[in-house]
Design goal:
Alpha-lytic protease prodomain-like; single chain; Alpha-Beta Plaits; three-stranded mixed beta sheet; 3 domains; alpha/beta
C-alpha cells in the first residue's frame, strides 16, 4: 500500500505549490516502510526473547515444510524482481520493499532451520535463531531509515552524476574552465544545477551568452538536468598582475591544506593600494575557520607584496573532495 501511494505521489507533475515536482514522496513512503520494518524487528526481538526464556516444542508437518520452502523461493523471486525494477527506474521505495521481502525470507529460513535442528537434536534454538534474524532486521531498517532521511535532507551527489557533468562540460572548447558546481536533487529524476563558466574577458556578453545557452540546452536534452550557467570573464592576456597571482598561489600552496583558487581579479584603489579578489575552495576535512584563513592569507600576502588587501570568498566543497568542479 505504501509503495503504491509513494509511486502515485511521485508521478505527479510539478504544480504551483511544488515547482520541483513530487519525486521525494517516494523517499517519504520508503521512510515509512523502513519504520514498519523496524517495528517488525522489535516485535521479533520480543518474541525471540520470550522463546529463549520459555522454550517450547516446534513441530511442523511435511506439508508445512514444503510450504515454507516454496514460500522462500517465491519471496527470493520477489526480492530479485523488486531490486531489478528498483535499480532500473532508480526507485528507493522498491529497493526498501525488496529489503522487506528479504527480511521475510530470513524469518522463514529461521523457522525452517529451527524446526529441522529441533527435530534432529531436540535442541530448542528457535529463540536464538530468531534473535539473530531480528538483529539483522533492525540493522537493515536503521540503514534504510538513514538513507531516506539523507534523501529528504539533501546529500552529496553521486560520483557518477558529477563525472557525467564534468565530461559533458569538458566538450566545450569555447570555455576556459568551470567551477562552483552546485547540484540539488528533488528525487532521482529531478535534478537542478548551477555552474560558473569561464570565458575570455575579450569576448562580448552576447558571445558568452550564446555558448551558455547552448550548454544549458545540451544538459537538458542529453542529461535531463536543469542547468544554469554563470559567466565568469577571465583576463588571460594581462601580465601586469602575474606577480600577484604567483604570490597568491605560493601562499595557498604553503599551507598544504589542499586549498585551490579561482575567480582571480585585481583592482587598483585610489590610494595606490591593490585589492585582490579571489575564491578559495576549502576541502570538507579542513577544520580551520574561514576567518582564520582570511587573516592568515592577508598577513602572508602583505609580507610578500606590501600594502595589499585580499577579499576572499570561501567555497566549501559540497560535492566531495574527490571532485574538482568547485
Amino acid at each position: 500500500g505504501l509503495t503504491v501511494i509513494g509511486f502515485k505521489m511521485a508521478g505527479k507533475k510539478p504544480d504551483h505549490e511544488h515547482p520541483y515536482g513530487h519525486e521525494r514522496s517516494e523517499s517519504i513512503s520508503g521512510l515509512l516502510i523502513s519504520i514498519v520494518i523496524m517495528f517488525v524487528g522489535l516485535q521479533f526481538v520480543k518474541s525471540s526473547l520470550d522463546k529463549i526464556i520459555s522454550p517450547s516444542a516446534l513441530r511442523l508437518s511435511t506439508t508445512v515444510y514444503i510450504i515454507l520452502v516454496i514460500s522462500i523461493i517465491l519471496k527470493l523471486a520477489q526480492v530479485y524482481f523488486y531490486r531489478l525494477i528498483g535499480k532500473t527506474i532508480d526507485s528507493p521505495t522498491l529497493i526498501a520493499t525488496a529489503k522487506d521481502s528479504l527480511n521475510d525470507v530470513f524469518t522463514t529460513i529461521a523457522v525452517l532451520l529451527s524446526a529441522i535442528i529441533q527435530a534432529s537434536t531436540g535442541w530448542h534454538l528457535d529463540g536464538w535463531v530468531g534473535l539473530g534474524v531480528a538483529i539483522y532486521i533492525l540493522f537493515s531498517a536503521a540503514s534504510l531509515i538513514k538513507t531516506f532521511i539523507n534523501d529528504l535532507l539533501g546529500h552529496q551527489p553521486g560520483h557518477e552524476l558529477v563525472e557525467r557533468m564534468d565530461a559533458l562540460l569538458q566538450t566545450y572548447d569555447d570555455i576556459l574552465g568551470f567551477h562552483d558546481l552546485l547540484i540539488h536533487q528533488y528525487g532521482p529524476n529531478m535534478i537542478f544545477a548551477s555552474v560558473h563558466v569561464e570565458f575570455d574577458s575579450n569576448w562580448t556578453l552576447n558571445q558568452a551568452h550564446h555558448v551558455t545557452d547552448k550548454i544549458e540546452h545540451d544538459f537538458w536534452h542529453q542529461a535531463q538536468i536543469h542547468l544554469v550557467c554563470h559567466i565568469d570573464p577571465i583576463d588571460i592576456n594581462n601580465q601586469k598582475y602575474a606577480k600577484i597571482y604567483e604570490a597568491v598561489q605560493a601562499v595557498i600552496k604553503h599551507y598544504e591544506l589542499g586549498l585551490t583558487t579561482h575567480d582571480f581579479h585585481v583592482e587598483e584603489l585610489v590610494n595606490g593600494d591593490k585589492l585582490i579578489q579571489f575564491d578559495v575552495v576549502v576541502p570538507e576535512h579542513i577544520t580551520t575557520s574561514d576567518d582564520e584563513l582570511l587573516v592568515s592569507i592577508n598577513h602572508d600576502l602583505r609580507k610578500i607584496l606590501g600594502q595589499v588587501t585580499a577579499e576572499i570568498t570561501f567555497d566549501h566543497n559540497y560535492i566531495g573532495d574527490d571532485h574538482s568542479l568547485i
